[in-house]
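Practice set, problem 2.
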Amino acid sequence: MTAVPADSGNAQSISPPLTIDVPTMLACQHLARVLTDAYSNPSRPFLPFARSLPDPFQSNLILIRLEHLLDKPSVILDLAGRIILWYLPDAISAWIQAEMEETTIGMGSLLMKSMTSGLDTQWRTFPGNFHASDRRQLTPGCINLAPCWFMQGQEPHGLPPADGFTPEVLVALKGKGGPKIIISMQRAALLASAALRVMHPKLYWASVTTHIKLARWAVERGLSDMSTCLQFWASVFNCAAVICNRQCPLHQDPSSTPEGFDVMSSVGHYCNGLMTLSNLGIRLQYNLGAMVGCSGHFVRHGVTYTGNRIVWAWFIRDSLQNFVGTPRPLYATYMGVD
């Protein structure tokens, strides 16, 4: 997939359009069928409702003991009809899965450097949570990739932000190698973006607006590395995490957009994949090619499996939306199917 030069008037301010090849179009067509099946299969688990809590959505996510197993495409709704989760098994075509694995192999040096020798409380990069691969050149590790990123403790909050910090390109994407990594991820990025276009249209367009504003801001300040990375970044999600062979205990992701969806794509060579959503009382069969969209901010999730597993998790940082003044959309609601 290659970038097509944009018109000269906007070449430096917005991302160029992409040439979509036949395999990518077929992958999107397959994804559309799975999304349709999921939307036609809504489910409302027996979620308790506590009126004493301030947010009805949050109160619907109280820990319960049910463990309903899902193995078919589904959407999970709360009591108010808001969509909590999209479950899309077999959503990623085999061709895209193979490309994601090859791209992850190419990130081996970055993944190797990602593990720390810190406390096990820093579980995302703690070496004890990773295991070696029995496949060629597959390196365990966890890296974040983003063309714009606020360093820890510098995220702006509220609109307009008043903290004074500015974003920068993550170290992994700085220099000549950054665009190469981004381009190698473009097909999977487009697939995740297409999913969000259906899952949450308002968030999709808000994210497009944020991307354009960030690109213009980078050009105005002569930030060439950031401008180039944004030009080739094909995802409406402004951040991605690439994770290889890591155990995933139950956790939440407080930096994610509460009203939005993180999209997790799982590939590799593993079996017995199971995602537990403890505060929904649900488990998902999490096999190869599965895609799950949920608010990691609210939904407590963890994964078990046997073998070699790669996850590309796409997410939106509220801090970047706040920085450029993009209003946060409301929750996606279920409209019903005739």
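Problem 2, part (b): a different protein.
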Amino acid sequence: MTTPQPQAAVPKKVESKTAAEIVPIDTHTPLAPTHALSITHTKHHTILIQDLTPSLSSLFSPSTGLAIEEATKLIDGTPAPPTLYTLKKENLLGSHMTVHDNEGKEVAEWKNPILSLHASKVTIKFLDAEVGQKMVEVNPIGHDRISESFHLNNKTYVWEAESKHHQHKHLYKVETVPAPAEATEGSTSTPETETVAKPITKRAHEVARYSQKHVHGHGHAGGKEGLLVIDSREISDLVGVLTLCAMLEQVHKEERFDTIVGNVVGVAG
């Protein structure tokens, strides 16, 4: 899956995990975010989610995309943007995190057991009834760590990193829609009914976008700050943030695990 460009003549495509087929991106419905959030890794085993929505117009435009440099200035500025959520790592590897809102109330729990047959799966338990679903499982697509999918309220969503720039990621909602009339096959019409059986097809449209300065392994956790813009009419901020962090932390966890193993081997040697 790649970034939809307004000038593209040919629809670009994304692979849906559940459909196991190529799903065209809906280029007629461009991303129209309602919120802007920063995702900042701190030195205290926490991840801060701060609200940059008042500056949304300067942080995103359909033509130029995300303005990560502008977001960094806001994050480092005074006064600091308000914190919406805090993700606290409960162990060294970050395989268990708790999520608290700006009032200190726990609203979700994030688990990714490292010693498990399902080590690649992240389970998010929501304590907030507004999400509409108590549990969401985020699963990788393939083995390259650049695509992950999850299901929420009977809909499929896919987080996808750009193939050549993994620090840029897009969230797509995959929908089932009737095929255009001109593509209809298998008519079941009769002189009496004159009905036509329309085949079912799938289409994906972008509902959120994320960017950070560097790819993973460069700087602090692949770049200290990241910028997320999201259409909260399509998916809640909390779900968007936590499913994105599931994708980001999988890579970070593997890097930390490799470092720990390397240190142990070095001491043992």
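Answer key, part (b): Residues 5-11, 13-21, 217-222, 255-265 have pLDDT under 50 and may be disordered. Residues 237-268 form the longest helix (32 residues).
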